[in-house]
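Weekly sync notes, structure subgroup
Attendees: PM, AL, DS (notes)

Item 1: joint prediction request from the bench team. They want all two components modeled as one assembly rather than separately. Inputs as received:
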Amino acid sequence: MASTFDLIVIGGGPAGYVCAIRAAQLGLSVAVVEKEKLGGVCVNIGCIPTKALLHSALMANTIRHQAADLGIETGPVTTHYGVAMKRSRKVSEQNSKGVEFLMKKNKVTVLRGTGVLQKGRTVRVGDEVHTATRAVVIATGSRVKGIPAIGLGLNGTTVFSSDEALFLEKAPPRLAIVGAGAVGCEFADIFNAFGSTVTLVEALPRILPLEDADASDALAKSYKKRKIEVLAGAKVTKAEVGEAEVTLTIEAGGTTKTVTVDGVLMAAGRAVNTEDLGLETAGVTLTKQGFIKVNLDTLETDAEGVYAIGDVAGPPMLAHKGSREGVNVAERVAGKTPHPITYDNIPSVTYCHPEVASIGLTEEQCTERKLEFQVGRFPFSANGRARTSGDTDGFVKIIRGTTFGEILGAHIVGAHASEMIHELLVARENEYTVEEVDLAVHAHPTLSEAIAEACLDSLGRVIHT
Amino acid sequence: MATKIVMEALSPTMEEGRLVEWKRQEGDTVAEGDVIAEVETDKAVMELVARASGTLLRQVVAAGATVPVAEVVGYIGEPGETIDAPTSTKPAKEKAPVAAKAKEEGKVKEGEEEGEQEPEIEEEEPEGTKATVSTGDATGTGGRVKASPLARKMAAERGLTLGSITGSGPEGRIVKRDVESARVVPETTAGPPADAGSGPRFEDQPLSQIRKTIARRLAQSIGPIPTFYLTADVDMERAAEARAALNDSLGDRGRISFNDILLKALASALVQHPACNAWWQDDHIRLWHEVHLGMAVAIPDGLITPVIRHADRKGLLTLSTEARDLATRARARKLTPEEYTGSTFSISNLGMFDIEHFTAIINPPEAGILAVGRIAATPTVVDGAIVPRRRMRMTMSCDHRVIDGATGAGFLRTLTRMLENPLALVL
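Output from the run, pasted for the record:
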């Protein structure tokens, strides 16, 4: 049955469903169109299940390497990827149900099916055409992609993506991961802990290429210690894909090597879901990079009253960026003037072990921009709390603008880095300088003390090193 | 008793508001919190809400009228109730919302109302206890301004008053981008690059009590920068002759303009009068030992002031080349930030527009700027006879907190003499 809503959101991922909830809070009648499970990639085949698996990996490594030292006798440790996988599925299902509940609670109508834009703020779902009186929001997200050009098109068995990796019953004995961004690095961590021999291949000169070089180096060192083969600045020149095996020819540092594996996990980028959406009919255009073209202040597309948020609207392709865009657009559509999004202060987190989290500029970027800055560092090896839990890997690095003490960038590698970065995130969002961060008395003993110390170090006043 | 509806201060800096539209008509029933009118403030159109429930008895002002803050615009009361003051009431008698707000913040002394225009004479009064109904500024003279720590630091370093900046952050909070876009002014931390010379580059002079009082009283009187103006009428005949001779001898090695001669003379005069080559720094005065001349250049959508560093140490030809290069690149928007910040004194020349005389606005934290008009043949008495002489009028704007009348006049006399006797520039 065709209906009329104030707002129709296409896509029930973290951008779309949050947009719907905020709009409903503001009194709008809202529909969300979702063809699969609510929660999108994030909840079902992305953020959430991988974090569940990473927790299994962390526990396995902790028990393996630390239990005896902690006074706990375990005997030989055996891991079962399939069991961990099933647990991760349960977590995802709970989260997806949670989103369903939120839709009901906020009286958001969920239209099951594929949404296709029509002219003039109408959306066809199956045979029904729904009208939005105020706005249509495109939040269709992105999906994994292979690299068919080098013979690594996805086949779902020997060449697969995170979509399949999340449902494997067993960890492949030998695994190559192509792409060492957040996804590649997280799966390297997971499968290494579950007994795979992992080869991590990155085309750019270092793993986590978008992070500060110090963070990449620290993680590479930790991976090598765990016998993950890290090939950075490496190019896959040939791939022979067989029934049960893949042989990769990899050029790295002037030498060529071949690696034979049972599976290749493609983690080199994502493609946005802009096809078969009726964009052309609706008058929505794309950028050269293939994202939906939006006004960066309002997120409105070239078609009046049609907005795009989340991955389809451009990088960074992160759930939390999409959610905030969702809130922003909902408020704008409801007639409010939302605060602009500070795109240069969106945290980037990789949940491998040690965790890597950052905000703002890297040291390299500061140098490129000819900024005057001072770097403050504090290693967790000098932090009391880190020693108590054996989490001495990693550091806090703060880049302080010399003139005003501005936090230009902050980088944390270590246990709980994903949580700790938020202190600096709030500080930077509100334009606190390193002095204000240090002024707040930090509890002792905590890992967060390393943040205060790194601030002090940037001022030349570090206490504990 | 009817309740007055007053023009409320709907933005921190609002002093008056235009009543755009009445949302309720006379005789309408209104509840506390209802929107009764729309008011255009200095920043936006905002809603004026009822502070009492009842009937809108009277609209004292018509839509479209501009009304000072705290002035009565209408009355709410019981139907049929008579209103004793149908026309506007003195704001001083009202508990103006703006005053009430200041009181909440503990900024108003007991019994002291906003309307009392009594001149402030107690010199001993500690700072911060006096009512400051306007937003005040970052330097602690009164009212609280919402600003991020970074914005405060940047504004302080750049000599900007927070109260003069419009905030774009949450709840009008002043954030970095607001300070950055406030105005192109010198960045004082870095100061001019230390590219030459030895010895101290400047001297920070503590403020004497009298200097503090002068600063406060004058700022109160005229605005953040208490400016006064000194005009001198300069005989440019000899400068013109000198310029012609110089250009003859230079041939195709370059051309000296009147502006170049002015830059040279100005730099030399500033060396002799360090009191005018100074920055107001809120709690002290910085006397520069170096002369960095800011030179106003018109660019397509505004103006920018590129800086000639160490102008006092440079020859005419160097000054000329640099000035031309900076102006060209300024128009092409090719200047780096270091090239338009850190000046110690500025000059603005509108002679080429045939302007006879004008005043220029001081570029804070500098203490002065020279506005130069055209050079024109003027009847002049020379040895008892009236002869045409090329003359020029220049006006110096002085920050009175730094420069007193006699100080500025002395400087201007030196400058005039240099221009009238350009040979002195060689010394």
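Discussion: The helical segments of chain B are 97-104, 149-158, 176-182, 209-222, 237-250, 258-272, 316-331, 405-420.
Action: AL to compare against the crosslinking data before next sync.
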